[in-house]
Amino acid sequence: MNVSPLNPRVSHFDQVDCTNTKLREMTDLGATEGVVIVAGSQTAGRGTDQRSWHSPVGGMYLSALLRARELVRVTDLSLLAGATLAEAVGVLLPKSKEVSVKWPNDCLVGWKKVGGVLCEVYKESEHPLVIVGIGLNVNIPPEELQPFEKNPFSVTTLMTEKGGEAFDLGHVTGVVIGKLFSLYASYQQRGFGAVKQIWEQNCRLLGKKIEVSELGWEGKQESAKEQRVEGIFEGIDEEGALVLLDEAGGRKRYYSGRITCFWP
Ligand code: BTN
C-alpha cells in the first residue's frame, strides 16, 4: 500500500490522570489519527493486567492515536510500540547496555524493566483507532521507583543505567515519537513484516530457554488452570504470536500470556 507518512501532532500537559484516558476524551471531541499527548506526570497511570503505573515527574508518559489494519490486528500496534521503545532505548543508552523487548512489549535493560506499553481500542470498527500508551522510566530517582507488584522483574531507569546522569526528557520523548511514527509508516507500507523484523532485531531472548504461562494456548482457553510450558523462544510469527519450540521439537504458538526467562 502506498500511504504518505503521517506527521505526529503533539500536545503537552504538565499533569493528567492518565494520558490514555485524556486521549480518549480528546478523540471523543474529534482528535484524529496522528495526535500524540505527552504528560509530565500522571495521577492515575495505568499498566497492563489492571496494575497501576507509578508516574512521578521525571518519567516519560505519552499516548498516540494510531489505526490498526483490522480489528483482529490490534496486537500489531502493541508489538510495534514495544519494538519502538526498545529501539529508542538502545539508541539513547551506551552500546554496552543490554536492551531488549520482552514479548509482547515490555522494555528491559540488563533484564530490568524500564518501560512498557498499554494499548486500548478506541471504538471497535473495521479499522479501529487504537490508543497506544507508552511509559518509560527516564529520570525518576531510585528511591521513588516502586517495585512492580507481582512482577518478577526489578525495575530501572535510563538515568540509573547511565551512571546517574540525567537525560533531556524532551530529547528522549522526541526519539520515541520519531521511531514510533517511522515504524508506523513502514507498517502502513509493508504490513506486519516490517514490525516483526524490528521487533526480532531488538529481542535478545530469541534462541533462549523461556517459560510461558497462560490460560490455554493456540488461542483457546483449555482450562481455568494456569499452564506453564518451557521451551526455546524461536520468534514471533506473522500474527505476532510467540513461537515456542518444546523439548520434543514441537512448535506452540501463544497469543497471550506471560514469559519468564532463564537469565544467562
Ligand atoms: C505496563 O504495565 O507495562 C504498561 C505501562 C504503560 C504505561 C503508559 S504511560 C502512558 C500511558 N498512560 C498510562 O496510564 N499508561 C500508559
Describe this structure in words.
Helix 2 packs parallel to helix 5. The strands form 2 sheets. The chain has a 7-stranded mixed β-sheet, sandwiched between helices. The chain starts with 8 loop residues before the first strand and ends with a strand. The protein is globular and about 55 Å long. With 264 residues, it is α+β, with helices and mostly antiparallel strands. It has 5 helices and 12 strands. Biotin (BTN) binds next to helix 1, strand 3, strand 6 and strand 7.
Features:
seven-stranded mixed beta sheet; alpha+beta; 264 residues; five-stranded antiparallel beta sheet; 12 strands; binds biotin; single chain
Q: What strand line-up does the widest sheet have? A: 1-2-3-7-6-5-4
Total DSSP E strands = 12
Question: Into which percent range does the helicity of residues fall?
Answer: 10-25%
Low-confidence stretches: 216-222
pLDDT averaged over residues: 90
Bound molecule kinds, no repeats? biotin
SSE blueprint:
Blueprint: E1 9-16, H1 19-28, E2 35-42, E3 60-67, H2 74-92, E4 99-102, E5 106-109, E6 112-121, E7 129-136, H3 158-161, H4 169-190, H5 192-201, E8 209-214, E9 227-236, E10 242-245, E11 251-254, E12 258-261
Parallel strand pairs: 1-2
Antiparallel strand pairs: 2-3, 3-7, 4-5, 5-6, 6-7, 8-9, 8-12, 9-10, 10-11
Helix pairs in contact: 2-4, 2-5, 4-5
This protein binds biotin.
